[in-house]
Design brief:
The structure holds two protein chains of two kinds. Chain A is an alpha/beta fold. Chain A has 28 helices and 19 strands. Chain B has seven helices and twelve strands. In chain B, helix 6 packs across helix 7. The chains are: A alpha/beta, B alpha/beta.
Chain lengths: 684, 265
């Protein structure tokens, strides 16, 4: 664009011209000129792209703003410093430590600054600190410190010199911070005041009502939530009942179905308190992000006689819905289960899932202890409710999708299956008879034990099913998608990444073919497949990463298991964290044995529980003997050698129960339907 | 006066005609910091008064016969009181144990250019040294065949041959390794030298390669080495403290006298 310091304007956009002028200014080194022009330019770009770090601006805006801040600091222009810091915090990925330092530097200047500048800086800084506070992995002390700072920054807006210029968004933010600090009562008057600041006939009211309703819902003020949200109901329901489009747009964009969901949840949580609403079922935010209304009778009919359904609804006053086949719905408010409780549990769950990442300290048993301690009060009494039932189905909500319910003390000893949403509880596609057992093992060539596991499955079930094995480089996306539609059982032993926040980012790592490069089957592709023939999918995979996310951004259960269930798979057995090779192979081996032993309708959660129990108590010598048996019965020299190695390693450290620790066996869980018809696998 | 001599081995690649990868295809086992490691350890030891017995054995020159030949010559030229330094930077591996002397049924190996040298062969080579000779082996390598997890640092590679590659390599050279295992000396019980092993990591960990040096060697080079090399504990402890926790790599120090288990790694 530029040549020799001059600007060539031929065939370039106005923005490019401006950027070229900026480049000239930077080169010429006039700090004072740069500050004013830089702020204008950054604001112009931000209006166009909304993001200073990513996307079309490609970091240009961030670099401009950083230059502005440096220049303003150098020439002592406090006003521009404040604006520059405000815009930087608003639009760029600023690390916490740097952000706090910028806030410390800029905020003292607001006393002598124009009102607009002061308001911008305070609200942006408060939002920045609130967002940072809610990052998963923060300690409770650190989180509360940041929330406290955020609230302190909002004070001048709420009651200080800026009070006459307050806007409803400031009050909602303050209410949210109070709620996260465990002070929901302090939030209610703020929200009430916010409702008075917007004209109810205006377009602004629609947006405000949604925010206010969701925040009321979060703090457990159901009546207020319903009152506010009901004013947007016709439009919201109209939108949410329409096709919801691609999952990406639902997850990442602002979607009015949230309104319907929040309203529906509020209505549902009022069910025991106010029969006048006459709710006949549960309206729930669905696993694909849309609102759904599930008829309660139909949900109860999906359960077996001995099964208890436990549906969680999380807001500040967490509610459990208990139901069974007899439609005996009981609604329990969980005492003491505040947002703080759930924050602790989410921290522990994140710790649990990431504790095997390099550099993480702490162990899975430690994380589980924290988790159980945090939930002891909230789930007290649940054991009494479960007593008498032979199995439990848990429908989690929002961030609860991160929790390993099957490992919680409250559910100890009871076979458990997870179902991502009421809709998936209701769905039971007809499956044509027959089909094959498709085993996909070690696409990336680095998991010999996965090949052993696949061989064990073949040896156990190969005589019952038409067995089709893909191993190593044969495990391409094309091959898998070609075979999957005819598979009745699908076993996958390899690497996976399950993304809870954005399921379309979940992947199974496969092979690209002869060149041996990695390829992936991503969630978006899975969402295009009809998997309704697959009765059982066993994903014995390293679930190697839950992305960093903010707690308040996770609103739906997702991940690979949910993704597969949504596409019609009956039951998924999957893992929550990275599993050791030998333990994974043995658990899958035992699971298949248990399923086949059942003979007819096999109870998957119960079979998985027995399989894990068997492996937990297995002595090294027994485990080694099983691997040796697999080696002996294998016709594949590589697999036999790998099985022998696994046996050798077990024998090197003989012990009564080498897999007793929960990190060895606890990752496996069942999601979806309870029963798998083993007979339909019989050769036709 | 007691003699101090050293042999330094580093392999940035191995012979792909011999080695196989996870899929059974030719594998050259590229590493980036290993040959630098050997050169740097040679220079460091020279400053500490250790004479290089031979030019550092790098890449194609680091064959099994070259290493074993030099060790045999060093054994012949040393006497009680002498110090022998041997450093190795390259891939480690494991191989099915031919004689049952390993409790996990697997021999540990160094991946030299033309083939793997198993720990029993090294043990036999050390046994040729006189009683009273002190051999210090610094091995920046690992033998864990476990699954490679996400690399802790961008670009870092583990210095171990994977289980799959190891099985394929063994299967592709079955006759050669059968002969190697059969040729081991048996019944060596006479008192031999003392062998000190400074290993880059624990048995179930990975040692990481990087540029310009492996993580372990870089830490050793950044720590003050004792001039007299009499006690290595502090050197190793300082080096260990310099390794970033994200590598999950904890060096270890073990000492044994040839003629008694355990075998060297």
């Amino acid at each position: 664009v530029t040549s020799g310091g001059s600007t060539d304007t031929t065939g370039v956009s106005p923005l490019q011209v401006e950027l070229a002028r900026w480049a000239d200014l930077v080169r010429d080194g006039h700090a004072g000129t740069r500050v004013g022009f830089g702020l204008q330019l950054a604001e112009q770009i931000m209006r166009l792209t909304g993001d200073a770090t990513h996307g079309p601006s490609d970091g240009v805006t961030e670099s401009i703003l950083r230059q502005v801040v440096r220049d303003a600091r150098q020439i002592g222009d406090r006003n521009s410093l404040m604006v520059g810091v405000g815009l930087l915090l608003q639009a760029a990925d600023v690390p916490l430590e740097e952000g706090e330092a910028l806030i410390d530097e800029a905020v003292p200047g607001i006393a002598n600054a124009p009102v607009a500048t002061g308001r911008l800086l305070l609200i942006v800084a408060a939002e920045f600190l609130r967002t940072e506070a809610m990052r998963i992995g923060r300690s409770a002390d650190e989180r509360n410190r940041l929330l406290g700072r955020s609230l302190a920054l909002l004070q001048p807006l709420l009651e200080g010199s800026f009070e006459p210029f307050i806007e409803w968004q400031h009050l909602v933010l303050a209410a949210q911070v109070h709620n996260y600090l465990g002070e929901p009562r302090a939030a209610i008057p703020l929200l009430a005041r916010a409702t008075t600041l917007v004209d109810r006939g205006s377009n602004e009211w629609t947006k405000a009502a949604i925010e206010l309703g969701l925040t009321y819902n979060d703090i457990g003020a159901d009546r207020e939530a319903v009152e506010v949200l009901s004013q947007t109901l016709p439009m919201a329901l109209g939108n949410s009942l329409a096709p919801s489009g691609s999952p990406t747009s639902v997850h990442r964009g602002f979607d009015l179905s949230d309104v319907a969901s929040a309203l529906a949840e509020s209505l549902a949580s009022l069910r025991d308190a106010d029969a006048a609403f006459g709710v006949q079922g549960l309206a729930f935010i669905d696993d694909d992000g849309s609102a759904a209304f599930c008829d309660l009778s139909a949900m109860c009919a999906q359960l077996a006689d001995d099964e208890l359904g436990v549906l969680f609804c999380v807001n500040n006053a967490t509610t459990m819905f208990l139901f069974d086949r007899a439609e005996a719905l009981r609604v329990r408010r969980i005492p003491g289960a505040s947002v703080q409780t759930w924050l602790q549990t989410i921290d522990a769950a994140d710790w649990l899932q990431s504790s095997m990442k390099p550099g993480r300290t702490g162990t899975i048993p430690q994380a589980l202890e924290v988790l159980n301690d945090a939930l002891r009060g909230a789930l007290s009494g649940l054991a009494d409710e479960i007593d008498g039932y032979g199995s439990v189905v848990v429908i989690p909500h929002r961030t609860l999708a991160l929790l390993p319910f099957w490992l919680l003390d409250a559910f100890a000893g009871t076979p458990l299956r997870m179902v991502p949403s009421p809709r998936l509880l209701l769905s039971s596609p007809d499956r044509p008879a027959g089909g094959e057992l498709l085993s996909v093992a070690d696409p990336n060539g680095d998991l010999p034990a996965a090949r052993v596991e696949s061989e064990a499955v073949r040896q156990r079930a190969g005589s019952r099913f038409d067995y089709d094995g893909l191993a190593g480089r044969a495990c391409t996306v094309d091959a898998l998608l070609r075979e999957l539609p005819t598979a009745r059982w699908w076993h996958f032993a390899g690497h996976a990444r399950s993304d809870v926040a954005f399921p379309e980012n979940s992947v199974l790592r496969l092979s690209s073919g002869p060149d041996g490069d990695d390829d992936v089957l991503d969630g978006a592709t899975i969402l295009q497949q009809d998997l309704s023939r697959v009765a059982l999918a066993v994903l014995s995979a390293c679930s190697s990463g839950v992305p960093e996310m903010r707690i308040d951004s996770v609103t739906r259960l997702a991940g690979l298991a949910a993704l597969l269930l949504r596409q019609g798979v009956g039951t998924v057995v999957a893992t929550m964290w990275e599993v050791g090779d030998a333990a994974a192979a043995l658990i899958v081996d035992q699971l298949v044995a248990e399923l086949l032993d059942e003979g007819g309708e096999a109870d998957v959660p119960a079979c998985l529980q027995r399989a894990t129990e068997r492996v937990r108590t297995m002595a090294s010598s027994e485990a080694a003997a099983r691997f040796q048996q697999i080696a002996t019965d294998s016709v594949d020299g590589f697999v036999a050698a790998a099985a022998d190695r696994a046996a050798g390693r077990l024998l090197s450290h003989p012990g009564p129960a080498p897999f007793a620790s929960v990190e060895r066996w606890g990752a496996f869980f069942t999601a979806g339907a309870r029963y798998v018809d083993v007979r339909v696998g019989d050769r036709l | 006066m007691a003699r101090r001599i050293g042999l330094y081995v580093g392999l940035g690649s191995v012979d792909s005609d011999h080695y196989r990868d996870n899929f059974g295809e030719p594998w050259s086992g590229l590493l980036r910091g290993t040959e630098n490691d050997a050169r740097a350890m040679s220079e460091l030891m020279t400053t500490l008064g250790v004479e290089a017995f031979a030019p550092a054995l790098l890449g194609e020159s680091a064959t099994s016969s070259a290493v074993l030949h030099h060790l045999a010559e060093m054994a012949a030229e040393t006497s009680p009181g002498d110090l022998v330094i041997v450093t190795f930077a390259g891939h480690g591996g494991q191989m099915e144990d031919g004689d049952g002397d390993e409790d996990d049924g697997l021999d540990e190996t160094w991946c030299l250019y033309d083939r793997q040298v198993i720990d029993d062969e090294l043990h036999d080579a050390y046994a040729r040294f006189a009683e009273g000779v002190r051999i210090v082996v610094i091995s920046d390598s690992c033998h864990s065949g476990s699954v490679t997890r996400l690399a802790p640092e961008s670009g870092a590679l583990p210095r171990s041959m994977s289980d799959g590659a190891s099985i394929h390599t063994r299967n592709a050279n079955e006759a050669l390794y059968r002969d190697v295992l059969a040729d081991r000396r048996r019944g060596e019980v006479r008192p031999g030298p003392t062998v000190e092993l400074l290993a880059a990591c624990q048995d179930d960990e990975l040692s990481w390669d990087d540029e310009p040096h492996g993580v372990f060697t870089a830490a050793l080079l950044a720590s003050p080495a004792p001039r007299d090399l009499s006690s290595l504990d502090e050197w190793l402890a300082t080096a260990a403290s310099l390794i970033k926790p994200s590598y999950n790599q904890h060096p270890r120090h073990s000492v044994y006298t040839v003629g008694a288990p355990p075998a060297p790694g």
